[in-house]
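Thread: sanity check for a docking pose with 2-acetamido-2-deoxy-beta-D-glucopyranose

Original post by kr_44:
Hi all, I'm comparing my docking run against an independent structure prediction. Below are the sequence and the ligand SMILES. Could someone generate the full complex and paste the structure tokens? I mainly care about where the ligand ends up relative to the chain.
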Amino acid sequence: MAFWSSMVLIVLAMLSTVLTTPSTAEERRRSDLEFHKWYVHIVNNLSQGKLLTAHCKSKDDDLGIHQIPVGDEQNWSFRQNFFETTLFWCSLAKDNVHADFDVFWDDDNFHYRCSFKDCIWVAKDDGIYLKNLPEGFDEYRHGWKQ
Ligand SMILES: *[C@@H]1O[C@H](CO)[C@@H](O)[C@H](O)[C@H]1NC(C)=O
Ligand SMILES: CC(=O)N[C@H]1CO[C@H](CO)[C@@H](O)[C@@H]1O
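Reply from moderator J.T.:
Ran it for you. Here is the predicted complex with 2-acetamido-2-deoxy-beta-D-glucopyranose included:
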């Protein structure tokens, strides 16, 4: 009886170790990233000298309206805050079309594309691309809307 109850306790102790280890690894990853500095870039790669109008915001900051000439960019940096999930979004416009989308959020697949530092959004004639920095190509992400 005592033998079986101690076996049960040992098994439970082992299980709880197995179940809690990933969460401490996750916490460690989060504290590594907590004071991590990120850059977001909005690049105008439109043809024919078209101006790109960008209006980007977070919950706390309105970065204002920027007119970005071809070949130029708007960029800003910030430190990620894991206690209030950091999120930026933009409204981009050219001619009579626009695209509204998130430009920074908390997601490993997204952070990977930024090489954990530079999230580069490129406006082209056919839509908005996100640079996949580690793999070296531009991924089509959003179309222009009327
Ligand atoms: C940020 O944008 C400016 C143009 O507004 C550019 O001159 C500068 O090189 C950019 N910085 C980075 C780190 O890309
Ligand atoms: C940042 C970026 O993607 N720049 C490209 C803009 O388009 C020209 C060709 O039209 C490319 O050479 C640049 O690399």
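Residues 1-33 form one domain. Hope that helps with the comparison, let us know if your pose agrees.
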